[in-house]
Amino acid sequence: MQQTTLLSDPYNVIITGVGGQGNVMASRVLGNMLSEQGFEVTIGETFGASQRGGSVMSHLRISRQTAWSPQIPKAKAHVVVALEPIEALRVLMVFGNPRTRVLCNTRPIQPVAVICGDAAYPDGTEIRRAIGELTSDARFVDATDAAVRLGNPILGNIMMIGALAAMGGLPIGRADFKVVISRTMDADKVTANLAAYDMGVDMIGAKEQ
Amino acid sequence: MSILIEGKSGTRHLLMGNEAIARGALEAGVHVAAGYPGTPSSEIIESLAKVCGPRNLYVEWSVNEKVAMEVAAAASFAGLRSLCVMKQNGVNVASDFLLHLAGSGTRAGMVIVPCDDPGALSSANEGESRHFARLVEIPLLEPGDFQQAKDMIKWAFALSEQIRNPVMVRSVTRLSHASGNVVFGDLPAVDAEAYFKHDGPALDPLQGVMLSYPVALKHRGQQEKLQQAVSLFEQSPFNTYEGPENPELLVITSSACCLYSTEAIHLLGLEERVGLLKLTTTWPLPPQLMENYLARTDKILVVEEVIRFLENEVKVLAAELAPRIGIKTFFGKKDGLLPTVGELNPDLVAGALARIFKMDYEPVAATYAAQAAEMAAKAPGRDLTFCPGCPHRASFWTIHNVLEMDNRQGFVCGDIGCYSLAMLPSGFSTLKTLHAMGSGAGLASGFGKLKAFGMDQPAVAVSGDSTFFHAVLPALVNAVHQQSDITLIVLDNSGTAMTGFQPHPGRPVDAAGNPAPQIDIASVCEAIGARVRTCDPFDLERTERTLLEMLADTPGVKVLVLKQICALSPEKKAKKMFEMRLDESICLGENCGCNRLCTRIFKCPGLNWDAAAGVARIDEVICAGCGVCASICPAGAISKKEVA
Ligand code: SF4
Ligand code: SF4
């Protein structure tokens, strides 16, 4: 049964990633799914440099009462959805607390400093360990590669939304997703998006067995 | 079809602040909207352009903000409600006209929406538009949430019509680019007729001529209009107060800071001790309303972005009212409690409140914070860079190399657009100056006249295609006429890329997507008298040769147009021109004499460096298939195959 209430009001979600990954699209879809059910949703976005390789963050505030600040206060994130692993670490530093939960896409995107050799990209297991230590629940999914197999890396975002729904904690489900995606996308794209959503749900399901 | 006109009255929608502003204008029955693209303002005009047909609207992306304001004013003079939109520094550009417009007055409602960018999240400045409202003496409104962003636009149109002068409604990034739920109102009928009546009595505001002359008379009239606005402000339903009757501290705030302040009071559990006055009519302040709240307490904290504006206004008013309300203690930016640089957030406001109330504010245990910081330190930072396949990376690669080859300490004066990033290592730190729109060419025009004083460094300027029309053109005319020695490089990527690809006069379409006459940059430059060459920046070799020749050529004004479409343009997006292959057996890695040109210097994000294997790789997900890196690798390890 889909949960209908919030575990906390406001409930705070951060979606983070790198410019070009579709952060804004993901936050809009999620925001609309919640708004559809009558929640007051506030989304704060830092996308000035979104297409040019910088870190990007969307802050979602979900409430039954009112609009909240588009910037979540420090240490108040309930869930962090990271489209890129090291972005999760960056966000936890400011907005995390020991009860924060994380959903993390494992596909790295090298920053310019790594490409040119000025810095090293941390090892995958080290990142997992760090995120695990800082949070109460950390899930890792390989959404990008699955999305590439599905034909479009951008669908990775939709998988992450499916996985987020499957993690529990948010009052969202497949029906809400279908309503939103059918309204905002061309009909020929809806099937692929639903498939991506379901794959995301399965990624978490498989973990839980 | 857009939700902005499909949404019925009374329904509730999740809207971006800019969309809420657009809906507000539609509910007010706007008929003409003009602006120049600039983050965080662009979605307002874009949203309106999408519905211009069904809503009987004329929408344009003007050549610059001053012209946008003139276009909007013309509509007002002819009896149509009009909206004019720009980012904060656009107001500087338009301010000469605005000063005179405020003197001449307007007819149908005219609303000016500048979107400020506290913290310069996507700007080269964090300048403010609020000061212009005071400078030219027009009313200033600042919505404090998403619903108000819509509703106050409608209110502003009515106010403008009542006082027959433009009204400024200021937004900021955290409203414009944030989203919240908004309940829609009614949309009015769409019919409208334009007629400019000008042959009545000269001084008749609705039938005479539109002038700021005679100045003293008009200026006095303008100040009377402001007084009228103030009396409406006293009654405004948009100024609200929350908190106890007599709070220990009164917080006075406006704009996005309303949301930060509410949250900060909540974080510290100070709801019973602090009063919050959310002001939306911020200039001129309504004195009776202010007196009512100032009288309730002795301590006042003003929360605003970026520099002191409200704080000063409140202090002046409090001084005037002192005989009746007593002497107050003020907190805010003057005493350093809140920063005067950068944007605010709930934590900064909470920190200020905690200091005033001598409370501890520790959002998370210090041990957790330390551990998280230590782990985050391992995450390498993300410097901004051009997109994979961006023509600018190739252009600056060549410009940078040619200036080195030329060996006379030549330099590039930068301008505003994606290519401003060339001030950073990802653009080979090529730009040596960066100021306003068009300032690159203007500065070069000046540098190019300094030969008489012994300066023989070549002065180069860059300009985007949209920037060219916005403000480079006058500087170029100046350079030709003054016989300055400059080379202007126009980085023509066929659109206003930085802000989301809006059309400009060099494009064959207008804001509504209809065909429009295209003005050719090269022909314009030739007509002015410059020597013009055109290259494809992806052709590194030819571009290099051409630019070298141009620098060595006889003095005068030379223009090189580098034409290649932006990697994100709708025409190009997600379509690879080339399939790229990196042969790892040929890549010499660190042992290559090239010092890893591809990844250490050129560093397109589509290329990865595999440190363990000691070779470069192409990242298929990120590479845009522009083919340029094939010409960079001296070992010939990267090859390209045209995509059929
Ligand atoms: S948006 Fe276009 S012009 Fe701007 S950095 Fe990306 S590719 Fe280059
Ligand atoms: S072809 Fe080379 S330069 Fe062009 S986007 Fe791909 S990796 Fe970057």
List strands and helices in order, with pairings:
The complex is a heterodimer of chains A (209) and B (644).
Chain A: E1 11-18, H1 23-35, E2 40-46, E3 55-63, E4 79-82, H2 85-95, E5 101-105, H3 112-115, H4 124-134, E6 137-141, H5 143-150, H6 156-167, H7 174-184, H8 187-208
Parallel strand pairs in A: 1-4, 4-5, 5-6
Antiparallel strand pairs in A: 1-3, 2-3
Helix pairs in contact in A: 1-7, 2-4, 5-6, 5-8, 6-8, 7-8
Chain B: H1 3-6, E1 12-16, H2 17-27, E2 32-35, H3 42-50, E3 58-61, H4 65-77, E4 82-87, H5 88-104, E5 110-116, H6 130-136, E6 140-141, H7 146-163, E7 167-169, E8 171-172, H8 173-176, E9 179-183, H9 215-234, E10 240-242, E11 249-253, H10 257-267, E12 274-278, E13 281-283, H11 287-294, E14 299-303, H12 310-325, E15 329-331, H13 346-356, H14 366-376, H15 391-406, E16 411-413, E17 431-433, H16 439-447, E18 459-464, H17 465-481, E19 486-492, H18 521-528, E20 531-535, H19 540-552, E21 557-563, E22 578-582, H20 597-602, E23 607-610, E24 615-618, H21 628-632, E25 638-642
Parallel strand pairs in B: 2-3, 2-4, 4-5, 5-7, 5-8, 6-7, 11-12, 11-14, 14-15, 16-17, 16-18, 18-19, 19-21, 20-21
Antiparallel strand pairs in B: 1-9, 6-13, 10-12, 22-25, 23-24
One iron/sulfur cluster binds next to α21 of chain B.
